[in-house]
Amino acid sequence: MLSREDTLNGVTAMSIRAKLLLPIMAVVVAVLVTSHFIAFAALKDNLVVERFRSEQRALDLVALAIVPDVLGGDLGKIHETLNEVRQRHTWWKSVTLTGRSGNRLYPLQAEPPLADLAGLTSEIASPSGTVGRLAIAFDMNALVETALVVLWRLEGVMTAILVLGGIIVVALQNRWFVAPLLRLSEASRLLSEGRYDAPLPPPSSDEVGGLIRSFDSMREAVGLRERALRDGERRLQAVIDNSAEAVLSLSAAGQILSLNAAAEHMFRASAKSMIGWGIQTLIPATAFSIVPIQAVSGIELEAMREDGERFPVWLTASEARLDDETILVATVVDLTERKRTEQQLKDSEGRFRDLAVSASDWFWETDEDNRLTFVSDRIGEILGVKPSGVLGFTYFDFGLSDYDPAQAQAHAEDLDAHRPFRDLTFAVGPEGAKDGKVIRISGMPFFNEDGAFIGYRGVGADITREAEAERRARLAQQQLADAIESINDGIALFDSEDRLVLCNQEYRRVFWQLGDMLVPGTRFESIIRDERTQTLFDPGEMGLDEWTNQRLQRHTQASGEPFLIRMTDGRWISSREYRTNDGGVVGVRADITEMKLREQALETLKHRYQLILDSAGDGIVELSGDGQVGFANRVAADLLQIEPAEMIGRHFAQLVQASADDAAVITGACTNGVAERVNNAEFRRNADAMAIPVEFLAAPIIENDVANGGVLVFRDISLRKHYEQVLADQHSELERLVAVRTTALSQEIKNRTAIETALRGSRQHLKGITRWRWPLPARHF
Amino acid sequence: MWRRLLGRLGLAVSIAFLAMPAGAAEPQVYKLAVVPQFDLRRLQSVWGPIVEQLQNATGAKFELVLEPGIPAFEKGLQAGAYDIAYMNPYHYVIASKRQGYRAILRDVDEMLYGIVVVRKTSAVVDIHALDGLTVAFPSPNAMGAALIPRAEFATKFAIKVKEKYVKSHSSAYLNVLMGEADAAGGIKATFEQQPSEIKDGLRILYETDRYMPHPVAVHPRLSAVMAGKVQAELLALGARPAGAALLAEVPFRRLGIAVDSEYDQLRKLGLDAFYVEP
Lengths: 781, 278
Hints:
By secondary structure, chain A is an alpha+beta fold. Chain A has 25 helices and 25 strands. In chain B, the strands form two sheets. In chain B, strands 2-1-3-10-4-11 form a six-stranded mixed β-sheet. Chain B has a five-stranded mixed β-sheet with strand order 7-6-8-5-9.
C-alpha cells in the first residue's frame, strides 16, 4: 500500500501483490512462450515426421503383402487388398500400383493428381528385383490434425493450468500473506489512533500467524495499560467533575489552566472563558495572593461570580508537579448555602424557642429507648409536672399501656419499626378524676447522619376537654342510634356532604340488597347510581336515568313530602326526607307493601262494585246523611244527564228537583232510617229542567245502628206511563167496538131467525113433494 | 470237421473283403468337398445350409470341406479324400478315372463353356489373333476358364498363346483390363459377376463349345443307399423354392440327375494333355 509520503515524494512503490504477481506471471509467460514456440513446435514437427514414417511403414507393409499377388499376377487379390487398405486408410487419398513396366495395375481408373497432398512410394520387390511400385498420396494435415488438435488442447490446458495456477497462487499468497499483513497494517494504524477493536486475521500456524499472535499480544498489553491509564484519568476526572467543590489548576503565575464543572457552575462562567484568567479575577482577596505559589490549607475568602455577585468561599490550595512544571491545585467551596443554612438554623432556633414558649402544646424528644430526653416547659402547665420530672420516662409509663392495651401494642410496634405516629390519644391519671387528663401525642423518628435511629421528636397536646366533648358526643350519638333503632320505620341519616352517617336495622332490612353499601361514609348518590340499586327500584314508565335524576333531586330537596318507591320485587316503600339543621338529610322509609296490596284489593273490589252497579238497570245514588252524593252509577248519570264524577260531593237537591213529599221521603231515609217506595214521582233535572217521571226507593244506610246516609234507587217510568195510557185508550176503543158489534150481532140474529123459519117451512113442503121419487141427499149446513 | 468249417469261414471273409471296392469301408462322417471357384466364405455360406439339409434328411453326418485353392482341391480329389464332391467337369473326368467318382447330379439347364475376353479397345477381333499373345487364366485346370479354351486354342484353332495363370477369374479379367495380358479365359458366370467398371472395359472375344457342367459326384466307397439319399435329398431340395434359392447360389439353375456317360464328350476332348498335375 502506497504511503502518502511515498506518493508525495514521487516514489513509485510497488505493492506486495504486484511483487508477488509479477514473477509468477513472468514465469507463466516464459513457460507458455517456450512451450508454444519451441516445445510444441518441436512436437508438431516430430509428429509430422513420425507420421510420415508411420505411413511409409504402412505402405511398405502393404507393398510387402501384395508381393506374391504381384508376382502371381493376381490382380483380383491385389485390387481386393488395396481396396480394403484404402477403406482403412481414409487419409490415403490415392493409391496407385504400377507394374514393372510402369503400367498401372491399380486402380482401375487413373485418378487425377491431388494438390497439397504428401506422397509416398514403396517398391514392390522380389528376389528378382522390383516388380512394381506402390504409391500413395495422403493428406498429411488431416493425418496430423487429430494429433495437432490434441496438441493444441494440451497447450490450451497447460496454458489454463499455468494461468489459473498463477491466479490461485497469487490468491493464496494474498490470502495467506498479503491480506493478513494488510490487516495487521490497518490494525497498527488504528492502534496508533487509540483503537483496539480492529479485527485481526485469524492466526495461522506459520510465521504470519506468529506475527499476528505477537501483534495481538502487544495490542492487548498496550490496551490494558492505556485502559488503566484512561480509567484512572476518567475516575480522576469524574471525581473532579462530580465534586461539589470547584477544582482549578493554576499555573505558577496564577493563571487558570483548567477547572471543573463545579467551578463553572459556581462562578457562572464557562471553562472556556475562564481558562487563562488570573485567579484574582475570581477571588480578589486583598490579603491573600497566590503569587508566588503557595499552598493554603484553608481560608475563608470572598469570591466574585462573573456577574459581579460576591459570595463567601473556602479556599484550599496545594502544589503539584507535572513533568517539570509546578502547578497549584485549588479547591473552592461555595459557603453561600452554608451561611444561609446557618442563618436559617439560627432563625429556626429562635422561632422554635418562641414557638415553644407561646404554643399550647409541648414539644418532646425521646432517645432510642423511647425515653423522654426533652420536654418543653409547656408540659408543666398542662400536666402539672416539671419537665425534669418526666425525663427518663416513656409515655407508656404515663398511662398509655393502661388506657387501651391494643392501642398500646400497636404503638409499641410502630416504635419498634421506627414509624411515625400521629394523634395517639390516651389518658393520664385516673379516668374521670378531677386531675385526670387526656393527651394526644404525635411523633416523627429521627436518625443521625449514619442513618441510625436516635429517637422521636414530637408534640403533645392536652385534649381533655375535647375528649370529654367527644365522649358526650359519642354518648349522644349512641342515644340517637338507639332511638333510631327503636323506630319501626327505616331511618337513615346523611351528613351535609350527603354521606351516610348511620341507619337503623329496619332501613337495612328494607334495603337488604344494598347491605355492604350501607356503611357510614357512603355517599347517597353512590348508593343510587350503584348497579344493584339500579336493579332494585322499578322506575315504572320513566327511564332509569330519569328516575335516578328525579330521586336525587328529591333527596336534595328533602321537603318532607312523602313519595312512593316501587321495588322490582313488588314491594312498595313510602319515603320521606327532611333537611337537618346542619345541612344533612334524614330519610324515613316505610314498607307499605301490605297496605298497598289492601288498597289494590279495595280498589279492585270498588271497581267490581262499580261495574255491578253500572250494570244495574236503575239509577243508584248514594247519599250522605246531609244529602250529598257519594256515589252514582252510570244509569243515574244518564238519567240525570250529568257525569258521576261531577255528581260526587254535590247535594242531590242541587241536581234534581223533586216534590216536597218526595224530597221528604228521600231525606227521611238518609236521616231517619226510614225506607219508602214511591211509584209515581217526578224528578226535574236542574241541568235542562226536564221532568222525568220516576219511581224510586229510598233506603237508609245504617252504621252502628245509626242512619248515616242512604241509597236512592230510581228508574225512569216514562215508557211505562206511555204504555199505560196507550193501553187505556185501546181498552176504551175496544169497549166501544164491542158495543157496536153487539148491536150489529143482535140485529143479525133476528134476521137469521126469520130466514130459518121461512126455510124450515119450505123444506117441509118440498119433502112432501119429492119423497116418493128421489132419496133425499144429506143436508148441509 | 472243424478244419473244414474254419476254412470255409476264411474263404467267405476273403471273398467279402475282395468284393469290397477299393478305397475304404462306409465312413462315419461324410466329407463333402466343393471346388473353391469362389471365395471360401461365400462357399461356406452357400454350401453350409445345403450340407445341413443333407444331415437333417439323411440322418448322417456330413463335413463340408473347403480347400484353400483349386490345386489343393484337385489333390484331394485325386486322392479320393472326399466322399462327395462338387467339381468342374474335367475334375470329374480325372477323378472318375482315377478314383471312380460317379456323377449323380448336375445343372440340367446350364451347359459349361468357356469364354475368352479382351479389352474392349483391343485390336484383337479374332481368336486367331491371339496367337503368340499372353492370355491370362485363373488356373491351368479351371474347366471352362482354362482347360477348354486352352484345348480349343490348340486343337481347334491351332494357336499357341503365352499362358499366364493368375489364381482367379477376377484376376484374369483384371490382367486384361490393366494390360498385363492380352486376353483372359473365363466363364460367363464369373464374367457377369464382375463389377461394371471391369466388365464394361472388356468384351467377349470367343465362346467355347458347350459341355456338361459341374457335377456332384460321389466316391465309390459311398454306399449306393447313401448316394441315393443324397441325390434324392438334393433333388428334393431343388424342388422347394427355398432350396432352389439355395442351390441357385452354387450356382444350380435347375438341379437334375447326372449320368457318367454324359461326360464322355469331355473325355474325348483330350483335356489330359492340358491338365497340369497339381
